[in-house]
Every structure is written in C-alpha cells, then in structure tokens.
Amino acid sequence: MEIVGGRKFVEIPGSDTHELPPLLVRSAPKKRLDKVMDMAQAIVESEDLIDDFALGDPIAPQEEHERRKMDLALNLVDQYFAFMAHWQWGDSILEWIRQCETTFDLSRDLRTVLRADVWPHAGRSSFVTLLSDKAVKVDGVELQRAVGMRLTFRQPPPIGCFSNQFLFYLNHNVADSAYGTWAGMSPDPVSSLPPERFNFQVVTM
User: What's this model's pTM, rounded to 2 decimal places?
Assistant: First the structure.
C-alpha cells in the first residue's frame, strides 16, 4: 500500500499500465425548449414564487411582474438542464464502473483489488475518484453529484415533476446524500486506485 499525503492507494502487482474500457458519455436528450419553458412557467404560477403584493405595488407595474416571472422560469430551465447534464454523466459513469468491474475480474493482477476481504482494497467509489485524479474534462459537471443524481433517479423526470425548491435548493443535498450512502456501502478502509497505472478514453456520444 502506498500513502501519498492523507490518501492510501492499493498495491497492484508489476509495473504495467492497465487499459480500462472507454467511458462513453451520452449527451443529454434534446428537449423542446418551448415545452420546457411552458412547464417552468407553470411551476412559477402554481407555486406563487412572485408575491401577490407586487401586483399592487406602484413601483412594480404589471410589466415588471411579468418580467420577474419570466426570469424565474428561465432560471428554473437553467437548473433543469444542469440536472439533466449531471444525470447523463452519472448514468454513463455507473455503466463504465460496471464494465471496469468486469475488466478487473478478468485480470489476474486486478481481480483482488475490489475484494473487501483483502486489505487494502478499493470500492466502487474509487472509480469516481480515479476520474478526478485523471482530470477528466466534465464541462462543469460535479462527478459525485452526477453519480448521486443517477442513483436517485433511474430515469430523468420531466421538469414538471420537480418543485422549485428541489431545483433551486435541494438537488445538491439529495445527490450528495445518495452518493455518500452508495460510497459507504464498501467497508472501510477504502483505498484509491493509482491513476498512473490506468488508462482509458472518454468518448462523448
């Protein structure tokens, strides 16, 4: 076992570099912006995000009230598309991890790395850490949040299924909690995979 700073890395026999399956990142499905915008405006209307008193405020005429509603709806759409991007990355990462597990099982040097009865060992979350260590370009996506989103939602719901509170405030907490629970399923102590011993490609589809 190698210790670098405060992190522990599993020992892998030999000095060869191991080739992992490519990470195939599927782009988020195209959704009609007008339909998503209509649903976002319906959320703004139904959840009274603009205080009614603003209607009678001489400083906030009807035009200003409508502008505020439009701004909120646009913000909800932005939050939803960010959710979709994270979910799509998370779905791709979990599929990649399953393929990596198969690769490890077929390799004499790697098959014991993920066994919890062998110490030090790596867990499934070690693959997410490996992506960070390899500085994978993620276009603003937070890897742990992406996996947490995919763990929370088997399929990405339409925007109309979300409350404004989820999109504005709760999605980070929900995703972080899901990821933390999933990562904790591997018994401690979990060690990292040495990034210099692995190669893989990231392919955007």
Answer: 0.86
